[in-house]
Amino acid sequence: MFDNLSDKLNLIFKNLKGEGKLTEKNIELGLKEVRMALLEADVHYSVVKKIISDIKKRSIGKEVLSSLTPAQQVIKIINEELTTLMGGANKGLTLNGPSPVPIMLVGLQGSGKTTTAAKLALFLRKKGKKPYLVPADIYRPAAIEQLTKLANQIDIPVFFSKTNMDVPTICKEARLDAQKNEADVLIIDTAGRLHINNELMKELINIKTALSPSDILLVADAMTGQDAVNIAKAFDDLLDIGGVILTKMDGDARGGAALSIKSIAGKPIKFIGVGEKLNALELFHPDRIASRILGMGDVLSLIEKAEEAIDKKKAAELEKRLRKNRFTLEDFKNQMLQIRKIGSIADIMKMIPGLGNNKKLKNVEVDEKEFIKIEVIINSMTKEEKKRHTIINGSRRKRIAKGSGTSVQEVNRLLKNYNQIIDVIKKMNKTGMKKFIKSKMLHSI
Ligand code: GDP
Protein backbone atom coordinates (compact mmCIF):
# COMPACT_ATOMS: atom_id res chain seq x y z
CA MET A 1 0.00 0.00 0.00
CA PHE A 2 2.96 2.32 0.40
CA ASP A 3 4.22 1.79 -3.15
CA ASN A 4 3.59 5.31 -4.41
CA LEU A 5 5.02 7.04 -1.38
CA SER A 6 7.95 4.69 -1.41
CA ASP A 7 8.69 5.32 -5.12
CA LYS A 8 8.49 9.08 -4.65
CA LEU A 9 10.77 9.16 -1.62
CA ASN A 10 13.32 7.00 -3.36
CA LEU A 11 13.42 9.40 -6.30
CA ILE A 12 13.91 12.33 -3.93
CA PHE A 13 16.79 10.59 -2.18
CA LYS A 14 18.42 9.77 -5.47
CA ASN A 15 18.40 13.45 -6.34
CA LEU A 16 19.83 14.32 -2.93
CA LYS A 17 22.64 11.85 -3.43
CA GLY A 18 23.50 13.41 -6.79
CA GLU A 19 24.18 16.70 -5.05
CA GLY A 20 27.14 15.33 -3.12
CA LYS A 21 27.20 17.30 0.10
CA LEU A 22 23.97 18.48 1.60
CA THR A 23 23.35 22.14 1.98
CA GLU A 24 20.58 23.89 3.78
CA LYS A 25 19.13 24.77 0.37
CA ASN A 26 18.97 21.24 -1.02
CA ILE A 27 17.62 19.88 2.25
CA GLU A 28 14.84 22.47 1.96
CA LEU A 29 14.15 21.41 -1.61
CA GLY A 30 14.25 17.72 -0.73
CA LEU A 31 11.94 18.19 2.23
CA LYS A 32 9.50 20.16 0.13
CA GLU A 33 9.16 17.12 -2.05
CA VAL A 34 8.94 14.79 0.95
CA ARG A 35 6.11 17.00 2.21
CA MET A 36 4.26 16.69 -1.11
CA ALA A 37 4.79 12.92 -1.16
CA LEU A 38 3.36 12.55 2.35
CA LEU A 39 0.35 14.74 1.57
CA GLU A 40 -0.30 12.76 -1.59
CA ALA A 41 -0.18 9.60 0.51
CA ASP A 42 -3.13 11.11 2.43
CA VAL A 43 -1.19 11.77 5.63
CA HIS A 44 -2.98 14.35 7.78
CA TYR A 45 -1.60 17.83 7.06
CA SER A 46 -0.87 18.60 10.71
CA VAL A 47 1.14 15.38 10.96
CA VAL A 48 3.05 16.29 7.80
CA LYS A 49 3.82 19.74 9.19
CA LYS A 50 5.19 18.32 12.40
CA ILE A 51 7.28 15.55 10.87
CA ILE A 52 8.83 17.90 8.28
CA SER A 53 9.74 20.39 10.97
CA ASP A 54 11.27 17.62 13.12
CA ILE A 55 13.24 16.21 10.20
CA LYS A 56 14.47 19.70 9.24
CA LYS A 57 15.59 20.47 12.78
CA ARG A 58 17.60 17.28 12.93
CA SER A 59 18.93 17.40 9.34
CA ILE A 60 20.25 20.94 9.34
CA GLY A 61 22.37 20.28 12.39
CA LYS A 62 26.16 20.05 12.17
CA GLU A 63 25.84 16.31 12.61
CA VAL A 64 24.57 15.93 9.07
CA LEU A 65 26.36 18.71 7.23
CA SER A 66 29.76 17.55 8.35
CA SER A 67 28.98 13.97 7.52
CA LEU A 68 30.59 12.12 4.67
CA THR A 69 27.33 10.52 3.59
CA PRO A 70 24.70 13.13 4.31
CA ALA A 71 21.96 11.59 2.20
CA GLN A 72 22.24 8.39 4.22
CA GLN A 73 21.87 10.34 7.41
CA VAL A 74 18.82 12.22 6.20
CA ILE A 75 17.20 8.95 5.23
CA LYS A 76 18.10 7.54 8.63
CA ILE A 77 16.52 10.54 10.33
CA ILE A 78 13.37 10.23 8.21
CA ASN A 79 13.24 6.52 9.03
CA GLU A 80 13.46 7.25 12.74
CA GLU A 81 10.89 10.03 12.55
CA LEU A 82 8.45 7.83 10.59
CA THR A 83 8.94 5.08 13.17
CA THR A 84 8.23 7.45 16.06
CA LEU A 85 5.27 8.86 14.16
CA MET A 86 3.72 5.41 13.94
CA GLY A 87 4.22 4.74 17.62
CA GLY A 88 7.70 3.28 18.11
CA ALA A 89 7.94 -0.26 19.41
CA ASN A 90 4.75 -2.30 19.37
CA LYS A 91 3.84 -3.57 22.80
CA GLY A 92 1.20 -5.96 21.42
CA LEU A 93 -2.01 -6.87 23.18
CA THR A 94 -2.48 -5.95 26.82
CA LEU A 95 -3.43 -9.17 28.59
CA ASN A 96 -3.77 -8.50 32.31
CA GLY A 97 -5.98 -10.07 34.96
CA PRO A 98 -7.49 -13.46 35.64
CA SER A 99 -8.38 -15.84 32.81
CA PRO A 100 -10.25 -15.53 30.61
CA VAL A 101 -8.92 -12.03 29.94
CA PRO A 102 -11.57 -10.05 28.03
CA ILE A 103 -10.56 -8.22 24.85
CA MET A 104 -13.18 -6.04 23.17
CA LEU A 105 -13.20 -5.40 19.44
CA VAL A 106 -15.14 -2.31 18.43
CA GLY A 107 -15.65 -0.53 15.11
CA LEU A 108 -18.03 0.47 12.38
CA GLN A 109 -19.92 -2.00 10.23
CA GLY A 110 -17.88 -3.31 7.33
CA SER A 111 -14.55 -2.42 8.89
CA GLY A 112 -13.67 -6.12 9.11
CA LYS A 113 -14.42 -6.57 12.81
CA THR A 114 -15.96 -10.04 12.70
CA THR A 115 -13.24 -11.39 10.42
CA THR A 116 -10.61 -9.78 12.63
CA ALA A 117 -12.07 -11.41 15.76
CA ALA A 118 -11.47 -14.83 14.21
CA LYS A 119 -8.05 -13.77 12.89
CA LEU A 120 -7.02 -12.57 16.34
CA ALA A 121 -8.17 -15.84 17.91
CA LEU A 122 -6.06 -17.79 15.43
CA PHE A 123 -3.08 -15.47 16.01
CA LEU A 124 -3.31 -15.95 19.79
CA ARG A 125 -3.64 -19.71 19.50
CA LYS A 126 -0.44 -19.78 17.43
CA LYS A 127 1.18 -17.98 20.35
CA GLY A 128 0.07 -20.75 22.71
CA LYS A 129 -3.08 -19.06 24.07
CA LYS A 130 -6.53 -20.56 24.37
CA PRO A 131 -8.94 -18.01 22.94
CA TYR A 132 -12.73 -18.08 23.12
CA LEU A 133 -14.95 -16.07 20.75
CA VAL A 134 -18.08 -14.14 21.70
CA PRO A 135 -20.47 -12.93 18.97
CA ALA A 136 -22.07 -9.89 20.62
CA ASP A 137 -23.50 -8.21 17.53
CA ILE A 138 -27.16 -9.09 17.90
CA TYR A 139 -28.37 -6.46 15.40
CA ARG A 140 -26.77 -7.49 12.13
CA PRO A 141 -28.68 -10.72 11.49
CA ALA A 142 -25.82 -12.66 9.96
CA ALA A 143 -23.09 -11.51 12.36
CA ILE A 144 -23.52 -14.27 14.96
CA GLU A 145 -23.72 -16.90 12.25
CA GLN A 146 -20.64 -15.44 10.48
CA LEU A 147 -18.43 -15.53 13.56
CA THR A 148 -19.69 -18.98 14.59
CA LYS A 149 -18.84 -20.29 11.14
CA LEU A 150 -15.36 -18.77 11.20
CA ALA A 151 -14.74 -20.10 14.72
CA ASN A 152 -15.76 -23.59 13.65
CA GLN A 153 -13.46 -23.36 10.63
CA ILE A 154 -10.46 -22.84 12.88
CA ASP A 155 -11.77 -24.96 15.71
CA ILE A 156 -12.00 -22.21 18.33
CA PRO A 157 -14.78 -22.39 20.96
CA VAL A 158 -17.53 -19.84 20.40
CA PHE A 159 -20.46 -18.72 22.57
CA PHE A 160 -23.95 -19.70 21.45
CA SER A 161 -25.38 -16.14 21.39
CA LYS A 162 -29.04 -15.55 20.63
CA THR A 163 -30.45 -12.33 19.18
CA ASN A 164 -33.05 -12.06 21.96
CA MET A 165 -30.45 -11.95 24.76
CA ASP A 166 -29.19 -8.62 26.03
CA VAL A 167 -25.57 -7.93 25.26
CA PRO A 168 -24.05 -7.61 28.78
CA THR A 169 -25.75 -10.93 29.66
CA ILE A 170 -24.21 -12.57 26.58
CA CYS A 171 -20.80 -11.32 27.68
CA LYS A 172 -21.16 -12.52 31.27
CA GLU A 173 -22.51 -15.94 30.33
CA ALA A 174 -19.82 -16.28 27.69
CA ARG A 175 -17.19 -15.59 30.32
CA LEU A 176 -18.55 -18.42 32.49
CA ASP A 177 -18.60 -20.79 29.56
CA ALA A 178 -15.06 -19.77 28.57
CA GLN A 179 -13.94 -20.50 32.13
CA LYS A 180 -15.46 -23.97 31.86
CA ASN A 181 -13.58 -24.44 28.58
CA GLU A 182 -10.38 -23.35 30.31
CA ALA A 183 -9.94 -20.55 27.80
CA ASP A 184 -7.56 -17.76 28.75
CA VAL A 185 -8.62 -14.96 26.37
CA LEU A 186 -12.19 -13.85 25.68
CA ILE A 187 -12.53 -12.03 22.34
CA ILE A 188 -15.76 -10.05 22.06
CA ASP A 189 -17.04 -9.07 18.63
CA THR A 190 -19.31 -6.11 19.42
CA ALA A 191 -22.01 -4.57 17.25
CA GLY A 192 -21.08 -2.15 14.50
CA ARG A 193 -23.11 0.63 12.95
CA LEU A 194 -22.77 2.54 9.73
CA HIS A 195 -21.92 5.68 11.69
CA ILE A 196 -20.97 6.45 15.25
CA ASN A 197 -24.12 7.11 17.27
CA ASN A 198 -25.12 7.42 20.92
CA GLU A 199 -26.96 4.14 21.04
CA LEU A 200 -23.90 2.22 19.87
CA MET A 201 -21.58 4.01 22.26
CA LYS A 202 -23.94 3.42 25.19
CA GLU A 203 -23.95 -0.27 24.48
CA LEU A 204 -20.18 -0.44 24.17
CA ILE A 205 -19.79 1.42 27.46
CA ASN A 206 -22.20 -1.09 29.07
CA ILE A 207 -20.05 -3.99 27.87
CA LYS A 208 -16.94 -2.24 29.09
CA THR A 209 -18.52 -1.78 32.52
CA ALA A 210 -19.74 -5.39 32.65
CA LEU A 211 -16.42 -6.99 31.71
CA SER A 212 -13.63 -4.46 32.44
CA PRO A 213 -11.72 -5.60 29.35
CA SER A 214 -7.95 -5.69 29.53
CA ASP A 215 -7.70 -4.19 26.04
CA ILE A 216 -10.19 -2.48 23.72
CA LEU A 217 -9.16 -2.50 20.09
CA LEU A 218 -10.74 -0.42 17.40
CA VAL A 219 -10.98 -2.19 14.05
CA ALA A 220 -10.71 0.42 11.29
CA ASP A 221 -10.57 0.13 7.52
CA ALA A 222 -7.30 1.56 6.10
CA MET A 223 -9.02 2.21 2.78
CA THR A 224 -11.09 4.98 4.37
CA GLY A 225 -7.92 7.04 4.91
CA GLN A 226 -8.41 10.05 7.16
CA ASP A 227 -11.91 8.84 8.09
CA ALA A 228 -10.25 5.94 9.89
CA VAL A 229 -8.21 8.49 11.85
CA ASN A 230 -11.32 10.47 12.85
CA ILE A 231 -13.17 7.29 13.81
CA ALA A 232 -10.25 6.24 16.01
CA LYS A 233 -10.32 9.60 17.75
CA ALA A 234 -14.09 9.42 18.32
CA PHE A 235 -14.00 5.87 19.74
CA ASP A 236 -11.04 6.74 21.90
CA ASP A 237 -12.76 9.80 23.37
CA LEU A 238 -15.62 7.65 24.64
CA LEU A 239 -14.05 4.30 25.34
CA ASP A 240 -10.37 4.99 25.94
CA ILE A 241 -9.23 2.32 23.47
CA GLY A 242 -5.91 0.52 23.86
CA GLY A 243 -5.02 0.55 20.19
CA VAL A 244 -6.13 0.06 16.62
CA ILE A 245 -6.25 -2.85 14.20
CA LEU A 246 -6.01 -1.40 10.71
CA THR A 247 -7.60 -3.74 8.19
CA LYS A 248 -7.37 -4.03 4.41
CA MET A 249 -3.75 -2.93 4.35
CA ASP A 250 -3.42 -5.28 1.37
CA GLY A 251 -5.66 -2.99 -0.67
CA ASP A 252 -4.59 0.13 -2.51
CA ALA A 253 -5.07 2.58 0.35
CA ARG A 254 -2.36 5.21 0.22
CA GLY A 255 -1.12 4.71 3.75
CA GLY A 256 -2.24 7.99 5.25
CA ALA A 257 -4.23 6.32 8.03
CA ALA A 258 -1.31 4.17 9.15
CA LEU A 259 0.93 7.22 9.30
CA SER A 260 -1.53 9.56 11.04
CA ILE A 261 -3.46 7.51 13.63
CA LYS A 262 -0.89 7.53 16.44
CA SER A 263 -0.23 11.22 16.04
CA ILE A 264 -3.85 12.37 15.82
CA ALA A 265 -5.73 9.83 17.95
CA GLY A 266 -2.85 9.18 20.34
CA LYS A 267 -3.27 5.41 20.21
CA PRO A 268 -0.95 2.94 18.51
CA ILE A 269 -1.75 0.54 15.70
CA LYS A 270 -1.27 -2.91 17.19
CA PHE A 271 -2.15 -5.18 14.28
CA ILE A 272 -2.76 -4.91 10.56
CA GLY A 273 -5.09 -7.00 8.44
CA VAL A 274 -3.48 -7.93 5.16
CA GLY A 275 -6.05 -10.11 3.44
CA GLU A 276 -9.36 -11.88 3.73
CA LYS A 277 -7.92 -15.18 4.88
CA LEU A 278 -7.86 -15.91 8.60
CA ASN A 279 -4.08 -16.05 8.77
CA ALA A 280 -3.79 -12.55 7.25
CA LEU A 281 -3.20 -10.65 10.50
CA GLU A 282 0.23 -9.29 11.44
CA LEU A 283 1.66 -7.43 14.39
CA PHE A 284 2.27 -3.85 13.33
CA HIS A 285 5.96 -2.95 13.47
CA PRO A 286 6.47 0.80 12.90
CA ASP A 287 10.22 0.40 12.34
CA ARG A 288 9.73 -2.23 9.70
CA ILE A 289 6.96 -0.31 7.95
CA ALA A 290 9.12 2.83 7.93
CA SER A 291 11.94 0.84 6.36
CA ARG A 292 9.55 -0.58 3.83
CA ILE A 293 8.30 2.90 2.92
CA LEU A 294 11.86 4.06 2.42
CA GLY A 295 12.53 1.13 0.12
CA MET A 296 14.52 -0.77 2.68
CA GLY A 297 12.25 -3.76 2.48
CA ASP A 298 11.31 -5.77 5.46
CA VAL A 299 13.60 -8.70 5.94
CA LEU A 300 12.38 -9.40 9.44
CA SER A 301 8.74 -9.62 8.41
CA LEU A 302 9.78 -11.79 5.50
CA ILE A 303 11.64 -14.10 7.81
CA GLU A 304 8.72 -14.23 10.24
CA LYS A 305 6.30 -15.01 7.44
CA ALA A 306 8.62 -17.64 6.10
CA GLU A 307 8.95 -19.15 9.57
CA GLU A 308 5.20 -19.54 9.80
CA ALA A 309 4.75 -21.02 6.36
CA ILE A 310 7.92 -23.05 6.23
CA ASP A 311 9.78 -23.84 9.41
CA LYS A 312 12.42 -22.11 11.47
CA LYS A 313 15.29 -24.10 10.06
CA LYS A 314 14.43 -23.36 6.47
CA ALA A 315 13.84 -19.68 7.23
CA ALA A 316 17.26 -19.43 8.87
CA GLU A 317 18.75 -21.03 5.77
CA LEU A 318 17.07 -18.47 3.56
CA GLU A 319 18.52 -15.66 5.64
CA LYS A 320 21.97 -17.23 5.64
CA ARG A 321 21.99 -17.87 1.92
CA LEU A 322 20.81 -14.38 1.11
CA ARG A 323 23.51 -12.98 3.33
CA LYS A 324 26.29 -15.14 1.97
CA ASN A 325 25.47 -14.67 -1.71
CA ARG A 326 24.95 -18.40 -1.96
CA PHE A 327 21.65 -18.37 -3.65
CA THR A 328 21.76 -21.17 -6.22
CA LEU A 329 19.20 -22.02 -8.86
CA GLU A 330 18.05 -24.89 -6.63
CA ASP A 331 17.47 -22.36 -3.81
CA PHE A 332 15.72 -20.14 -6.30
CA LYS A 333 13.35 -22.98 -7.16
CA ASN A 334 12.79 -23.95 -3.54
CA GLN A 335 12.10 -20.37 -2.57
CA MET A 336 9.61 -20.07 -5.42
CA LEU A 337 7.81 -23.13 -4.08
CA GLN A 338 7.84 -21.79 -0.51
CA ILE A 339 6.81 -18.35 -1.65
CA ARG A 340 3.69 -19.81 -3.24
CA LYS A 341 2.74 -20.89 0.24
CA ILE A 342 3.42 -17.45 1.71
CA GLY A 343 1.92 -15.14 -0.88
CA SER A 344 2.58 -13.73 -4.30
CA ILE A 345 6.15 -13.32 -5.47
CA ALA A 346 5.61 -9.60 -6.02
CA ASP A 347 4.64 -9.25 -2.33
CA ILE A 348 7.69 -11.15 -1.17
CA MET A 349 10.07 -9.14 -3.34
CA LYS A 350 8.77 -5.95 -1.80
CA MET A 351 9.91 -7.16 1.58
CA ILE A 352 13.52 -7.79 0.60
CA PRO A 353 15.64 -4.67 1.14
CA GLY A 354 16.58 -3.09 -2.13
CA LEU A 355 14.28 -5.27 -4.19
CA GLY A 356 11.13 -3.32 -3.38
CA ASN A 357 12.11 -0.28 -5.34
CA ASN A 358 14.58 -1.82 -7.68
CA LYS A 359 13.80 -0.60 -11.19
CA LYS A 360 15.55 -3.55 -12.79
CA LEU A 361 13.47 -6.01 -10.85
CA LYS A 362 10.27 -4.29 -11.81
CA ASN A 363 10.84 -5.86 -15.22
CA VAL A 364 11.42 -9.30 -13.82
CA GLU A 365 8.64 -11.67 -14.79
CA VAL A 366 6.54 -12.19 -11.70
CA ASP A 367 3.59 -13.84 -13.36
CA GLU A 368 2.39 -16.50 -10.95
CA LYS A 369 1.87 -18.93 -13.82
CA GLU A 370 5.58 -18.76 -14.47
CA PHE A 371 6.16 -20.63 -11.22
CA ILE A 372 5.42 -23.99 -12.76
CA LYS A 373 7.61 -23.25 -15.78
CA ILE A 374 10.49 -22.21 -13.54
CA GLU A 375 10.13 -25.42 -11.58
CA VAL A 376 10.23 -27.70 -14.63
CA ILE A 377 13.12 -25.82 -16.22
CA ILE A 378 15.23 -26.03 -13.05
CA ASN A 379 14.26 -29.69 -12.63
CA SER A 380 15.75 -30.37 -16.05
CA MET A 381 19.14 -29.06 -15.00
CA THR A 382 21.94 -31.26 -13.68
CA LYS A 383 23.06 -30.95 -10.07
CA GLU A 384 26.19 -29.12 -11.17
CA GLU A 385 24.23 -26.66 -13.30
CA LYS A 386 21.94 -25.85 -10.38
CA LYS A 387 24.93 -25.08 -8.21
CA ARG A 388 26.96 -23.15 -10.81
CA HIS A 389 24.69 -21.42 -13.27
CA THR A 390 27.68 -19.95 -15.13
CA ILE A 391 28.41 -23.29 -16.80
CA ILE A 392 25.05 -23.30 -18.56
CA ASN A 393 26.19 -22.56 -22.12
CA GLY A 394 24.26 -22.63 -25.40
CA SER A 395 24.14 -26.40 -25.85
CA ARG A 396 23.17 -26.95 -22.21
CA ARG A 397 20.38 -24.39 -22.62
CA LYS A 398 19.10 -26.31 -25.66
CA ARG A 399 19.15 -29.59 -23.71
CA ILE A 400 17.36 -28.04 -20.72
CA ALA A 401 14.69 -26.50 -22.95
CA LYS A 402 14.09 -29.84 -24.64
CA GLY A 403 13.99 -31.73 -21.35
CA SER A 404 11.51 -29.34 -19.80
CA GLY A 405 9.29 -28.95 -22.83
CA THR A 406 10.01 -25.22 -22.98
CA SER A 407 11.97 -23.03 -25.39
CA VAL A 408 15.58 -21.77 -25.26
CA GLN A 409 14.14 -18.26 -24.92
CA GLU A 410 12.28 -19.32 -21.79
CA VAL A 411 15.42 -20.86 -20.31
CA ASN A 412 17.31 -17.66 -21.17
CA ARG A 413 14.67 -15.53 -19.53
CA LEU A 414 14.78 -17.55 -16.34
CA LEU A 415 18.56 -17.29 -16.18
CA LYS A 416 18.38 -13.56 -16.84
CA ASN A 417 15.86 -13.09 -14.04
CA TYR A 418 17.92 -15.20 -11.69
CA ASN A 419 21.07 -13.23 -12.57
CA GLN A 420 19.33 -9.96 -11.82
CA ILE A 421 18.17 -11.22 -8.45
CA ILE A 422 21.60 -12.44 -7.39
CA ASP A 423 23.17 -9.20 -8.65
CA VAL A 424 20.90 -7.19 -6.39
CA ILE A 425 21.45 -9.53 -3.45
CA LYS A 426 25.22 -9.25 -3.92
CA LYS A 427 25.05 -5.50 -4.09
CA MET A 428 22.91 -5.36 -0.97
CA ASN A 429 25.28 -7.58 0.92
CA LYS A 430 28.25 -5.49 -0.13
CA THR A 431 26.59 -2.35 1.13
CA GLY A 432 25.75 -3.82 4.47
CA MET A 433 22.57 -5.86 4.67
CA LYS A 434 24.05 -7.73 7.61
CA LYS A 435 24.32 -4.51 9.51
CA PHE A 436 20.79 -3.67 8.53
CA ILE A 437 19.40 -6.92 9.81
CA LYS A 438 21.25 -6.53 13.06
CA SER A 439 20.41 -2.96 13.78
CA LYS A 440 17.43 -2.44 11.53
CA MET A 441 19.09 0.86 10.69
CA LEU A 442 19.59 2.33 7.30
CA HIS A 443 23.24 1.66 6.65
CA SER A 444 22.67 -0.09 3.39
CA ILE A 445 21.35 2.80 1.29
P1 GDP B 1 -17.70 -6.22 10.07
O1 GDP B 1 -18.98 -5.70 9.51
O2 GDP B 1 -16.88 -5.09 10.63
O3 GDP B 1 -17.84 -7.35 11.01
O4 GDP B 1 -16.83 -6.69 8.80
P2 GDP B 1 -16.54 -8.16 8.24
O5 GDP B 1 -15.65 -8.91 9.15
O6 GDP B 1 -17.82 -8.81 7.83
O7 GDP B 1 -15.67 -7.77 6.96
C1 GDP B 1 -16.16 -7.00 5.86
C2 GDP B 1 -15.42 -7.41 4.59
O8 GDP B 1 -14.05 -7.02 4.68
C3 GDP B 1 -15.41 -8.93 4.39
O9 GDP B 1 -15.62 -9.19 3.03
C4 GDP B 1 -14.00 -9.33 4.81
O10 GDP B 1 -13.56 -10.49 4.14
C5 GDP B 1 -13.20 -8.13 4.39
N1 GDP B 1 -11.94 -7.95 5.15
C6 GDP B 1 -11.74 -7.92 6.48
N2 GDP B 1 -10.45 -7.72 6.78
C7 GDP B 1 -9.78 -7.63 5.61
C8 GDP B 1 -8.39 -7.40 5.25
O11 GDP B 1 -7.50 -7.22 6.07
N3 GDP B 1 -8.13 -7.38 3.91
C9 GDP B 1 -9.11 -7.55 2.96
N4 GDP B 1 -8.74 -7.49 1.68
N5 GDP B 1 -10.39 -7.74 3.27
C10 GDP B 1 -10.73 -7.77 4.57
Quick tags:
445 residues; alpha/beta; Four Helix Bundle (Hemerythrin (Met), subunit A); Rossmann fold; 434 Repressor (Amino-terminal Domain); 3 domains; 7-stranded mixed β-sheet; 9% strand; globular
Q: Can you summarize this structure?
A:
58% of the residues lie in helices and 9% in strands.
List the helices and strands and how they pair.
Blueprint: H1 3-18, H2 24-40, H3 45-59, H4 62-65, H5 70-85, E1 101-106, H6 113-126, E2 131-136, H7 141-153, H8 167-180, E3 185-190, H9 198-211, E4 215-221, H10 226-239, E5 243-247, H11 256-265, E6 269-273, E7 281-283, H12 286-293, H13 299-309, H14 312-323, H15 329-342, H16 345-351, H17 359-362, H18 370-379, H19 383-387, H20 394-404, H21 408-430, H22 433-439
Helix pairs in contact: 1-2, 2-3, 3-5, 5-12, 6-7, 8-9, 10-11, 13-14, 15-18, 18-20, 20-21
